[in-house]
Amino acid sequence: MRYLTFALAKGRMAKKTMELFEAIGLPCEEMKDEGTRKLIFVNEELKLRFFLAKANDVPTYVEYGAADIGIVGKDTILEEGRRLYEVLDLGIGKCRMCVCGPKDAADKLKHHELIRVATKYPGIAKDYFYNKKHQTVEIIKLNGSIELAPIVGLSEVIVDIVETGSTLRENGLTVLEEIVGLSARMVVNQVSMKIEHERISRIITDMRALIQSREQDGR
Ligand SMILES: Nc1ncnc2c1ncn2[C@@H]1O[C@H](COP(=O)(O)OP(=O)(O)OP(=O)(O)O)[C@@H](O)[C@H]1O
Ligand SMILES: O=P(O)(O)OC[C@H]1O[C@H](OP(=O)(O)OP(=O)(O)O)[C@H](O)[C@@H]1O
């Protein structure tokens, strides 16, 4: 039997993702040890391999088949635009991708003015403004603390993730338009889906059942 390899996005969703796999009987708790420099965890008995990777790299590993299955945010899937199957919404890491800015930027959007858009997600921003809204904008790529951009005059608006809304509120910004709802998704390599259909389908079915039962319990 060949190994089934899982690429999990590092960061805020990693712990919950590992808990979900544990709960369906696919142990990966070894990875929780933050002290280790070991990159890949092998379960000889179940013929499984797990690794954590930068979220942006997860779709790459999965498209090339270096991982059969990946867990990553919908934002990253949209941004990377890789060829893979998105098979399940894990219901964790729920947030929204939004156009945000100071209240007075709403008029600029409404009148389709030429504005600058700062974002960590240039692909999503481009798709939204050019293809969906037919608005010409200048997109400026940033790597973090995106809310700073309209405050210091780098851009009129931002495209960024909003969860609780605290970052916006504390910086005098607001949601102007909602682009899409986000959460963690399971993605599968297109060839693996065929050659490992039985094992992968079982994992999807077990994970779906777990998520549904947790949602019913209000967890
Ligand atoms: N409030 C939130 N802010 C950002 N991402 C969130 C939030 N809630 C859920 N997510 C999900 O978590 C992922 C980001 O995780 P995390 O914040 O650990 O990475 P990051 O800091 O953006 O990555 P990097 O350090 O590489 O820039 C997003 O892709 C998104 O799907
Ligand atoms: O609506 P909220 O609950 O406030 O969450 C949203 C904020 O969290 C994320 O930033 P993150 O903490 O990942 O830092 P970063 O800006 O440096 O990427 C995101 O980019 C927003 O800034």
TrEMBL record:
Predominant place of localization: cytoplasm
UniProt-annotated location(s): Cytoplasm
Reactions the enzyme catalyzes: 1-(5-phospho-beta-D-ribosyl)-ATP + diphosphate = 5-phospho-alpha-D-ribose 1-diphosphate + ATP
GO terms under biological process: L-histidine biosynthetic process
EC number, as in UniProt: 2.4.2.17
Pfam families associated with the record: HisG
Biochemical pathway: Amino-acid biosynthesis; L-histidine biosynthesis; L-histidine from 5-phospho-alpha-D-ribose 1-diphosphate: step 1/9
ATP phosphoribosyltransferase catalytic domain sequence ranges: 54-208
GO cellular component, one term: cytoplasm
Keywords: Amino-acid biosynthesis, ATP-binding, Cytoplasm, Glycosyltransferase, Histidine biosynthesis, Nucleotide-binding, Transferase
Molecular function, one GO term: ATP binding
Cited InterPro entries: ATP_PRibTrfase_cat, ATP_PRibTrfase_CS, ATP_PRibTrfase_HisG, ATP_PRibTrfase_HisG_short
Family: Belongs to the ATP phosphoribosyltransferase family. Short subfamily.
Function: Catalyzes the condensation of ATP and 5-phosphoribose 1-diphosphate to form N'-(5'-phosphoribosyl)-ATP (PR-ATP). Has a crucial role in the pathway because the rate of histidine biosynthesis seems to be controlled primarily by regulation of HisG enzymatic activity.
HAMAP family noted in UniProt: HisG_Short
UniProt note: domains: Lacks the C-terminal regulatory region which is replaced by HisZ.
Subunit-structure text: Heteromultimer composed of HisG and HisZ subunits.
Name listed for the protein in its UniProt record: ATP phosphoribosyltransferase
Taxonomic source organism: Lientehia hominis
Upper lineage: Bacteria, Bacillati, Bacillota, Clostridia, Lachnospirales
